[in-house]
Every structure is written in C-alpha cells, then in structure tokens.
Amino acid sequence: MKQFIDLGLSPVVVQAIEKLGFEEPTPIQKEAIPFLLANQKDITALAQTGTGKTAAFGLPLLEKVDSTISNTQGLILVPTRELGQQVASQLKQFAAFAKAVHIEVVYGGASIEQQIRALRKAPHIIIATPGRLIDLINRRKVDLSNVNYVVLDEADEMLNMGFKEDIDTILETTPNEKNTWLFSATMSKGIRHIASNYLNNPHEIKIDSRETVNEGITHAYIETNRETRVDIIKNILLVENETGGILFCRTKAESEDVGQALQNAGIHTEVLHGGFTQAHRDKVMRKFREKKIQLLVATDVAARGIDVKDIGYVFNFGIPDNMEFYTHRSGRTARAGSKGTSVVFIGRRDRSKLKNLARRLRIDFEPFKMPDVNDIIQEKLSDWVNGLQKKVDKAEKRIPSEITENVAKQLNHFSREQLISMLVDTEFGKMYKAVNNIGKIKEKKKFDDVRGGKRNDRRKDNKSERSRNSNMPSRGDKDFPRYFINIGKMDSMSKKDLAVFISQQAGIPQRDLVSIDIFRTHSYFSVNKKFTDRIASSMRGVEVNGRQLRVNRDNVK
C-alpha cells in the first residue's frame, strides 16, 4: 500500500499531511503527485469531486514554488468563492511545516481594495475566481508575468457558469512558458477547446468515476410522490437526530418551496441558491459548518465548494438529469474516509432513469431502510440517563418536598414499569412515531427487479398524456408565439421546473405556458400572446447560475 512518503514528497510536507489525519493517497493523488513532481509538463486530469484533487495539484505546487523569490509563481482558478477558500485553507495546512509560502485568495463579493493591498505583497500562489481576477487584471493590480504554473480546478464547472471568455483572457495574460494543470470531472467540448488551445501535449490522467463514486457511500432510493417527501425527510432526520445534511433541488424555485415546507414541518433549514448575496451565503455556510442547521437545501451550483466533514445524509429531491450531477451531489458525504448515505427520491416513471444511472456508475441502489430505532435508543440511553441525574438534582433543589410527596401519593397506583415506560415515551416517542410513518411507505423490490409499469398501464398513461396535449398549439400558432430561453438540462431543469420558473418570474399562469422543449443548453416554449409583453420585461437583468438570462422570439416557422 503506497503512503504519501512514497510519492516523492518532502518530509516536512508529509509531516503536515499526517498531522491532518491523511494516511493513504487517493487514486488521483497516486497518479498525479509523482508525475507533477518529476515532470515539467501540462496535464489533463479527469476526476470527480471528493476524490482528493486539491492535494493532487496542491502538494506538487507547494513543492515547486520557490519561496525565496518574491513574485507570484502559481495561479489556481476556481469556480466559486467557497471552493477558493477551501483550497486556500488546505494549502496553508499542507505548508504548515514547510517553507514560508505566501498564499492569497481573491473572489467577488468581498472588498476588492483589501484584496489589492494583499496582492501588493506578491503572494507566491494566488487562488482566484475568474470574474474577480479579470477585474484585477483590468485595473492592473495583479502581476502574472512570472507565473510558472496555472491550475484550472473544476474546469467544467467554470465553463458551465459562463466563465469561458474569462478563462481565455486569463490564460492569454499569463506567460507562454508555463505548465497548465487542468482538473475536471468531465471532458466536454469546452474543456477540449481549452486543452487544445492552451495545453502543450498534455499528459492525461483519468480516474474512472465508477471506481470512486461509491467508496464509503450507501446509495438508496425512496419511491414516493412529491407530496410526501418532506414528511419522509423530517422523519428520517428525527430518528437519526441528524444535523448538517444536504438536500439538493433542481431549481431556485424548488429549493425555496421545499425549504419553506421543511421549515413549516419544524426542521431547522436554510436555503442556498444563486439568487442570494455573498453575505447571506457566508452566514448560511458558517451556521452549516457549526452544525446549527439540520438541513441545507441547495441547488447544484450554489453547493459548489462545500467541503464539510461528517455530512451523514445527502438527499436528492428528484433524480438528477445526468451522471455528473449525481456524482457531485453524493460526493458531499463520505469524505475523508468517513461513511454516508445518498438518498434519491423517485416517482414511478423515474425507475428507468435511476436504473440507467446505476448501470453507468456501477453502483447499487437499494430501497431505503430506516435504522432500527431500538438500536439508536440503546446508543443514546446512557447519555440520557446521565442527563436525567442532573435534572433530578436540579429538581430536588427547586421543588418543595411537600409537592413531591403529594405527587408520589397520587402516583402510587402506577407500577414502576409503567412510570419508566411513560418516561421513555416522553423522551423517545417521537422517534417511534417517525419510524412507523416511514414504514407506511410501500416496500419496493430490490432495485435490480424494479421495472416500469405493466403494458396496459403505459398505454393508459400515454393516452392520457395525448389527451391532455391534444389542444396544445402547433409551433407556428399565432395565438401562442414561441420563445427561445438559454436555460436547459445543464441547469438541472425539467419541463415542469422551467414552467414553474417562467410562471413565477413573469407572473404568468402555468396553463398559458405550453409546448416546452428542453435541450442541454437551451429550451423553447410557447406562451399565450396576451402575456408576450411580460416575458421580455420580467426576464431583463435576471441571472441564472452566474450568467445573464436571454429570452428571444423564435422566428423559425
């Protein structure tokens, strides 16, 4: 079994790694670290989130930087502020016993003047979000002329968030003679463009997501309608006494609706999506890290960069549209060798999608089973009894003896066992009720046996769908003009989600939105002509996942 010392790292860096509790390198670390230490070459590394990418590029970068030279030698681009802070924190921990490497992180939503002052000290490594770095470049407040190494961390996410032009500009601003290390979960067309234009004969490292996604993670599913999902989540959290879980939703609108429903159900919940200010995001993340939130409800992009230990549960309110989204989501739990559970809620029509996801990732989805409540209570029993002793001591000091004697007389007809049962029920009765409620979910067969409905059911469903759509306008219907919108499947949008989004944004009844067609990067929809003025005005200035929303009339007949 390879250890970190076997990868060619210096003893002081290995000392810091061991102090942090890391023992065995992950697959991406075993592949990338020795190569980057021994070679001056560009690389493309395909690996999912949660696989140890930060150490894979961060440790070699720390070893290669010359701390005796006062200029910026390393640049790390990241998609989000949270990820930037996380990378900076880890690099500083890795360098705890090593040479004095100066590291700074710059991002939007914070004082640019403070960041400019920090950059005047010429940090050896700069970690930056593309937008803020472009601002600093335009102001001529950052010197990248001596950069030897550029790291693109989660490059696919930066492209998804609309940073392609910024990345092009930044790479063109850095010296031609440099090494570029590109780390991405997927090899999309945009990633290939960057690799072909800016990387020189890169060495390729590919860690199969199917080999890493299920390490330490239990994958489960619950088949139920949307209306019961909030109650099920509430009961799971109650039984597990879980804090710090994450619930993923597809859209901003869904996250707000579900978050409100969970709050109404008594779950301490906070919502995180792209529509919030940076100050709000920081406040929510601070509470989340301090375990003051039972459940964080988040969209995929808003959750980027979250790296919090001991997340026991990841819930998927619906099945994600693609494999990468599920891998990123489930990777929020079972980090650093711990265990966790990823639960997917599905409807009957989602069975084939889930089966396809399982096949592609080579993982097994099992019907969710609630842990035995008796086992949980046994684990909590000693702490509870110790707590009772403290309560008894306080009560004896507060309550007059004549009161306790009077109560004792009135309780004489109860047996000792009856009183104990009542006491236990007062403390743990809600757990038993929650388990009973979850037990009412109809048990499903194992995932390998789950199939679609019977043939006659499918014919019936298709017929009803056709009958519902029989009065839908055709593409050229003048009473329902057709529109283009630059939102698609890459934004985790379904037809229903897009209808809800447009309806809420423009104040249009959903029944007046028809013929929705969704593609990967964009969609089309038709709207009752009496609402056409609202479409343009309501969408102006709106941002989705970090990019400007664009809506135009579709002129194709």
From TrEMBL:
Pfam families: DbpA, DEAD, Helicase_C
Name used for this protein in its record: DEAD-box ATP-dependent RNA helicase RhpA
Membership in a protein family: Belongs to the DEAD box helicase family.
Annotated PANTHER family: ATP-DEPENDENT RNA HELICASE RHLE, ATP-DEPENDENT RNA HELICASE RHLE-RELATED
A molecular function GO annotation: nucleic acid binding
Record GO biological process: response to temperature stimulus; ribosome assembly
Domain named DEAD-box RNA helicase Q: residues: 2-30
Enzyme class (EC, first level): hydrolase
Disordered: annotated span: 445-480
InterPro entries cross-referenced by the UniProt entry: DbpA/CsdA_RNA-bd_dom (IPR005580), DEAD/DEAH_box_helicase_dom (IPR011545), DEAD/DEAH_RhlB (IPR044742), DEAD_box_RNA_helicase (IPR050079), Helicase_ATP-bd (IPR014001), Helicase_C-like (IPR001650), Nucleotide-bd_a/b_plait_sf (IPR012677), P-loop_NTPase (IPR027417)
E.C. code: 3.6.4.13
Domain Helicase ATP-binding: 34-205
Motif range (Q motif): 2-30
Gene Ontology cellular component annotations, sorted alphabetically: cytosol
Catalytic activity: ATP + H2O = ADP + phosphate + H(+)
